[in-house]
Amino acid sequence: MTRIRSALLLAGLTLLGACGFHLRGPQPLPFKSIHLGVSAYSESGANLRRQIAANGGTKIVETPSEAEVSLVILQDVKEKIILSLNTDGRVREYELRDRIVFKVVDRGGREVIPATEVTTKREMTFNDALVLAKEQEEAQYYREMENDLIQRVLRRMATAQWPLPELPATQSAPAR
Known about the structure:
By secondary structure, this protein is of the alpha/beta class. The protein is built from three helices and five strands, in the order αβαββββα. Strand 4 (91-106) and strand 5 form a beta hairpin. The chain starts with a helix and ends in an 18-residue tail after the last helix.
């Protein structure tokens, strides 16, 4: 019986490996240097810096003129919306939303990635008797959502076409 289980397990692992499955790992960015248009002291800025450094290959620089591209965060919005109330009119459920709108531009101001919005949301129950615990749960949800959004931003940046094709030279107007 153990030989049959071992054979089935080996066959399953072989099939899994043969189908091309692999865990999603870090994807290197196609840029050699990047400027982040977000404060290094903010939670999202620190997280972005950490993730880019972990991917390797891309240097984070302090000024846009030094960088091949700049990541510009146009919006970073966190929302908390009431989903349902109990019979006493107290909140029973919230929906937490996190949204980032970003774009990536090169030194010349051309958009490598146009304004793109990534969003995520989570539902959270609420209980008046557990206010402190629910506040911690909310903070944890926001941290997880932020990590998810940053991963999605980095995956989008990893698929960007770089370098951009050269613009055709402008033709001069005929002389009169």
